[in-house]
Structure formats: structure tokens, C-alpha cells
Amino acid sequence: MFSSRTHWQFGLNRLSQKLARMKKDGIPVLDLTESNPTRCGIDYQTEDWLAPLADEKNLIYAPDPKGNEAARKAVSEYYRSKRADVRPDSVFLTAGTSEAYSFLFRLLANPGDNILIPRPSYPLFDFLADLHDLRLKPYPLRYDGSWFIDLPELKKSVDPGTKAVLIVSPNNPTGSFLKREELSELNKIAAERKIALISDEVFSDYFFAEDASRAETAAVNQRALSFALSGISKILGFPQMKLGWIAVAGPDEEVCRASERLEIIADTFLSVNTPVQTALPAWLAKRALLQGQINGRISENLTFIRQKITRGSPAELLAVEGGWYATLRLPSVRSGEAWALEFLEQDRIYTHPGYFFDFPGEAYLVLSLLPPSAVFREAVSLIAERIGKD
Predict the structure, then answer these.
(1) pLDDT tens track for 125-151
(2) What value does the CA radius of gyration of the chain take, rounded to a whole number of Å?
(3) 259-282 as b/e, with b when 16 or more CB fall inside 10 Å?
(4) Where do the domains of the chain lie, and which CATH numbers do they carry?
(5) Residue 118: CB partners within 8 Å, gap ≥ 6?
């Protein structure tokens, strides 16, 4: 009755089963997986953010496949504040970055083609690939005190069915940014093999230090057909508002051909709702109010975990440059899942084991830096204490 693209495993894993039982029994849990800013104690100053939705323009339906011009100009101004010249005409608004991926997969690939994705990475891509009849081929991110792309392995992964290389900068969950030298090599590969670059930059406003070696946004990359993705889920901490975008860059002819096709794809769905588009200019102009709170929270929590997981600890806090996550490498006396189960059962702490993000080997835990500081401090203190006893 159902298509093969939906033949997923629907059962809960052991960790999720245990969490569900604890919630059913009313047992409180310190949740270090929570990355929804609307549930982490961020002050949204309700009237300021809801007021732009009460605009009489929202009563008029004037669809534009790319999104309304004022909203696209606001996106252009956002990039200009980052010293990147992105024209409004190169921007396509979408109902979030998941839809942006969907548009690009439809644009670039036929059933059975493949997209190269980083490993570790966010598990969303598996489902998106299934739904578009695509294959994912991982290329490794390596760690030697900092994260980097294994470019020789990436090159080996490119075959005639490869249509794009996906970059996440900063990566979720490693928090590593794409570097200028890496982008230069990716541009060469893309030009030689006639493939596109897709750069997911949703966390790019959140970084812990300046770095001159960091690549600028792919929204201004001229050496290969490139698609930069971002949106207000992370920029504003508004995941519920469902607005993202694609900024198209590259050689003029390729940009033109891609854009005319993207316009038809977008026109087929016209899925971005009018009130959110109307509010976007006012919202982006005030983004510092929310980003200041989020940056303060993740920086405070990162500082604390660095103090608790020191050089002499049995665990290692891997280097992180940006984003909302931290990764712990734990003693390999047990798997990441076994560690996560122990923390949940013994300390009421919910964490994500590394295999959720396709970390190679054992044992890794991924922690959100976004929970309220009191929750984070209590949980991390208990984690450090238990690791020290092992």
C-alpha cells in the first residue's frame, strides 16, 4: 500500500523507550538535547515580535515565486551587514530550510543520483534523500584537535551520479566552520565534475571567536554554482515561523539556468505564508535582541563545560567553533548509547549518543548548549562526577 521511500523503522530505540517510561511515570529529566529556543527560557518580548504580523498587507494575496520583494531586500540587507553583497533577485524564500533542500534536490538530481554529505551530520538528510529517491554518500570530517574535511576521501566519493556536495557551516553537531582553503578545493572539484555546492549556514551567526581562515558565505561564491541556505529558525530563534531562503551564486550562465528552474519549482508550491514575509524586514532589523540572549546562553554554558571537562578528565570536550552544540568523547569502555542510558537511568540526564549523528567509532555524546544555565550546570556536573567514578 505504501511507497518504498517510506519504509522507515518506526520503533523506539532503547534510549527513547526509557525516556518515554520516565515521562509517563512523572520522573523529571535534565534534558541536554533541547535545542528549541522557544522552550529554553529566551525572552521574546511578545508585543515587539507579534506587532509586525498585524499588517493590513496580509489581507492581500500577491504571490511572487521568489517571495515578496521587501522580504528579499531584507535578506539582502542581512547579508550586507555580514559584508556580503547579495542581490535580492538571487534570493528565493522557502517555508524553512527543509523545503529549501527539497527544492534543490528536485532542481539538481534525478532518482538514483547521489549527494555528498558530511559525516558526522544531522540525521534529517536521510529522510529528505529517501523522499526524493536519492542516495547519500558520506565524506568524512576528521578531528586532530580541530575538525577538517578529508578532501582526498571526498574526491574519491564523486562519481557520475553525484550532483552536489553539501556543506554545513558551522556543522551540526561538530560546530566546525568551512575554511577558505577547503572552499577553494571544493570549487575546483565542483567545476571539474560539473556539480553544485549546497551550503547550509543556519548557525553561521553563532561563533565563539573570530577566525580569518573561515570561509565567507557561499551566497557570494562565484567559482562554482552555489546555493547558500539560511533562515529565521536559528537567526531569530523562530523555528515555528517557517521561513528560510536560498541565495544563488556562481558563474552567470549557471546561475541564470538554475534560477529560472527554481522559480518554476517555487511557483508550483507558493508555500511561504504572507504574514511571515511581511514581518521579516522588521524582525531581521531587531535580530540582535534575540541573538544577544542566545549567544550569551551558549557562551556561558560552553565556558562552564570547559571548566568541568578539563585536560585531566577521562572525557574530552572536542573543539567547537560555533553553533549550539558541544561534543564529548568518553572512555570507550562502553558505547555512546550505553553511556547515554546510564546517565538517563542513574542521573536523570537525557543526552544524544554520537551514533544519532553518524559519528564513526565510540564513544561520543552530543549536548545542546541552549538549555537554561541552571539545568546545564547541574547536568554537566553530574556527568563529570559519574565519568570520574568510572
Answers:
(1) 999 999 999 999 999 999 999 999 999
(2) 21
(3) beebeebbeeeeebebebbbbbbe
(4) 4-43+288-389 (3.90.1150.10), 59-287 (3.40.640.10)
(5) 138, 139, 140, 141, 149, 166, 167, 168, 171
Taken as a whole, the chain contains a residue count of 390
What is the spatial distance between Cα 364 and Cα 319, in angstroms, rounded to a whole number? 13
Write the single-letter amino acid at 270: L
Task: Give the separation between CA 119 and CA 371, rounded to whole angstroms.
Answer: 25
- The 10s digit of each residue's pLDDT in 210-247 is 999 999 999 999 999 999 999 999 999 999 999 999 99
Q: Please count the other Cβ atoms lying within 10 Å of the Cβ belonging to residue 226.
A: 29
Among left, alpha and beta (phi > 0; psi -120 to 50; other), residue 41 is left
Question: Which tens digit of pLDDT belongs to each residue from 101-123?
Answer: 999 999 999 999 999 999 999 98
Where does residue 112 rank: exposed (0-12), middle (13-18), buried (19+ CB within 10 A)?
Answer: exposed
65 phi-psi bin (left φ>0, alpha ψ -120 to 50, beta other): alpha
Amino acid letter, 300 = E
Q: Please, is 249 exposed, middle or buried when counting C-beta atoms within 10 Å of its C-beta (0-12, 13-18, 19+)?
A: buried
What angle (nearest 5°) sits at the alpha carbon of residue 161, between those of residues 155 and 167?
A: 50
Distances in Å between the Cα of 144 and the Cα atoms of 81, 261, 305 are: 33, 42, 20
Entry pTM? 0.96
